[in-house]
Each structure stands twice: as C-alpha cells, then as structure tokens.
Amino acid sequence: MIRAIVGDLTKVEGVEYICNAANGIGPMDGGVAAAIRRAGGRVIEEEAIRICQAQDPQPGDL
Asked: Which of 3, 24, 25, 61 is the most exposed, fewest CB within 10 Å of its CB?
C-alpha cells in the first residue's frame, strides 16, 4: 500500500525501508538523503557509498 503523509519520514512507525534515489555515488549531503543520514547516523551513509561503489548504479537503472 502506498500513502502520503506529512512529517518526518524517518519517524514513521511500521516502515520497513526508505528508498531515496538521490544520486548514484552515495554521499548524503542534502534534502531527504541528509534527513536519513541524520536519523541513522554515519553508518547509513557509509553503507550507501559502499553499495554505490560495488553496484555502480546509472540513471534509468531499476
């Protein structure tokens, strides 16, 4: 189910994961990505960078 809400998406109960298609290199510098990093800590950003380096996502990839 998809639904729209207003508020801090990092504090929504019952959410299994958050997907943010901000960039394909990993750093989480602004916007939604920065909110996710602030909520989850540096480890979230480090994992994003590691995955992006390993998978090399490109625009249009699914």
From this structure: 3
Distance of CA 2 to CAs 15, 35, 61, Å? 11, 21, 22
Q: Is 2 within a domain? A: no
The residue-averaged pLDDT of 28-49 equals 88
- Please tell me whether the overall predicted TM-score, pTM, comes out greater than 0.70 for this model: no
> For residue 49, what are the domain limits?
9-55
Structure tokens at 26: 């990993």
Count of the separate structural domains present in the chain: 1
Contacting residues for 33 by C-beta, under 8 A, at least 6 apart: 20, 22, 23, 27
Residue 61 domain-assigned?
Answer: no
